[in-house]
Amino acid sequence: MTTGQDLRALREARGVSLDDLARETRMSKGHLSRVERGQRPVTPALVRAYEITLGVPVAATSATNSDDPDADTFEDVKRRSLLSSIAAASVGAAALEPLARLFDGFTESPPAYVGLTEVEAVERATDLYMSVDLARHGAMAAAMARGALRWAVSLTERRMAPDLRERLFSATGLLADRLGWATFDAGTPPRAMQLLTFALDSAARGPDRDLRAHIMLDLSTVLTDMGRPSDGVEILRMALGDERISSAEQANLHAVAARHCAAAGDRAAGLRHVERAEAALSRGTPALAPAWARHITVSPGHHDSALGLALFALGEDDRARERLTAAMSTLDPERTRTGLRCLTRLAILDIRAGNYDEGEAKARRAAAEASGVTSARISADLRMLVRTAEQYGKHDLAAELTSASSASRV
What we know:
Blueprint: H1 4-13, H2 18-25, H3 29-36, H4 44-54, H5 74-90, H6 99-102, H7 116-131, H8 134-156, H9 162-185, H10 189-203, H11 209-225, H12 229-240, H13 247-263, H14 267-282, H15 302-313, H16 317-330, H17 336-352, H18 356-369, H19 376-391, H20 395-407
Helix pairs in contact: 5-10, 5-12, 7-8, 7-9, 8-9, 9-10, 9-11, 10-11, 11-12, 11-13, 12-13, 13-14, 13-15, 14-15, 15-16, 15-17, 16-17, 17-18, 17-19, 18-20, 19-20
């Protein structure tokens, strides 16, 4: 565990005085001094305050079983630094990425004073982007979103009323999140991480607790896809620590955490998260959800699809079939990728159960509907479907699906 001595050594190594630290953290100098001398406990909130102020992950100073100062790999340090940054952004504590680095080359001059007209323009651009079927029109929509995001970023540096600033940061965070998610789905996880971390930093400066939690969910999914499911679960635990988020978003977070637990090989924990998601849904109040959530979290079929994907990953085939079937019957037709993810798994479940005719019909339908869809996730789902067909001796179907996928843009 990190000790007060660790904190003091790190502070001194960074050349920060106790007076400066007290001023930056808004904690009393006496309290910090007693913590560093071991007279008061080191709490997670205090560790986070040191990390934010000193700009380094405190976890790197913790005692290890090795006397080698280089025992931690570069990837270990990067991992801890990323998680620390996400924790800081989730509470609006620090800017994670200088805006100019994300949007170099933008030269338009924003107005000196930002009013309602400019903020509403960013909000309308965000609404428009969310209304586009990104599965089939992603390139066009992304170009529009990048332009709107550059404009929104330029506005944040200008003078405006406090309530408008909060609205602007929320709209900017939501737009960056949707663009980051589309970037991830296009198969570029590192760039997606950059955009999503910026989105979280922006959203944390606004009042929408559900939005920042949802962005953390998206960050966790990208990390899990990159082979780090334990980190994905850890980020969702941070998000769930905010009791002010809606029950609908809590259900969403637990459902996705269940899927990450399955990827990490912790089935028992995954099933517990499924139970918590279902409990959250039982006390849900969708009418109170923010407007953006009606496109995503509380849209028809969303929670059934999220739980169905989790149960499928956990090997709960019967329960997964029930949820996925319910999702397919209610999902908005514009949610092309979510529908395809459900359909490919239903095809696999049929093949596993020996319902080959139904499974093959669903598999062919999935391949046909995926034609023209640009999505790294759908590509991976179709490959999983091909592997299942081969595993159960359906080699003609596997060849047919492979040919269909190769001929499409998936």
